[in-house]
Amino acid sequence: MQAFTLTHPSDAKTAVAAASQAGAKYIAGGTDLLQLAKDNVETPTRLVDLEALGIAGIRPGAHGLHLEPLARMSDVAAHPDVVKGWPVLSQALLASASPQIRNMGTMGGNLLQRTRCGYFRDTGFACNKRTPGSGCPAINGENRMHAILGGSDHCIATYPGDMAVAMTVLDAELELTGQNGTRKVAIGDFHKVPGDTPDVETVLQPGEMISGIDIAASAMARRSHYLKVRDRASFEFALVSAAVALDIDGGTIRSARVAAGGVGTKPWRLPEVEAALTGKPADAATLKQAADQSGAGAKPARMNGFKLVLLRRTVLRALQTVSA
Ligand code: SF4
Question: Do 206 and 16 touch, CB atoms closer than 8 A?
């Protein structure tokens, strides 16, 4: 493990300046970063601890939900206003990791967790994401868990998280703070597909931090659901997951948001499913026809063709649940 210094800035400006230095990284809950550091996958020389900034608030209101980046996963999942107003978010958080990790893991850190590709996490293998230009053994290797959407010739690693998939159907907006001030980025624009730079996973600039998350309140957010399918019932990453949110009025679907996890190189919105739902009666035929649109453009690898079938079944089950 690489030795590092640890600083505890008490204001955002100092934190950004410290994290902008070469070899520096932010640390919040540390549940992913410290494991990666122990395995020498991450080798920071300076860690900038955000705890002293006091940015762990959970603020629901009539018009929306504001989350600060160090709010703990378990606290957000259990907040009664979140359970009622944004159930997909609470359910996705409760489907993540283990109770112990949810007690430590934060909103900002969860959005930035790294892929679970086994080659990435084992420095005995080449990996374009860890060492650009070294190769991708997953493409012709063990790829049952890998992506069927958004991959490239350089990387097919799945984005591992649940919460960001839920935030995708809620059209969450992230506030980013860096050396040039504060800017807003839609959740759908935050994570990047690998292309020929799989080491670049988000639009964050050096030293920039996630300083807030805003999610609007809506009828659709209240009628939302997260379904995760995995190899075991707890402490496991998604083979496939589906987040859905529907606005149904008089039996007609006025608008729909659908996204998937476990299948894409980033949280994967399914606009083809949304289009097949919008303006249609909320009946069994509509839901089945829409779910069958899932995964347009998918390119399964040697071992994960099953994900396309599983994706359509998972989306259908989630739609049936939320429209009942
Ligand atoms: Fe590395 Fe991506 Fe290939 Fe996995 S899929 S070995 S993370 S380049």
Answer: no
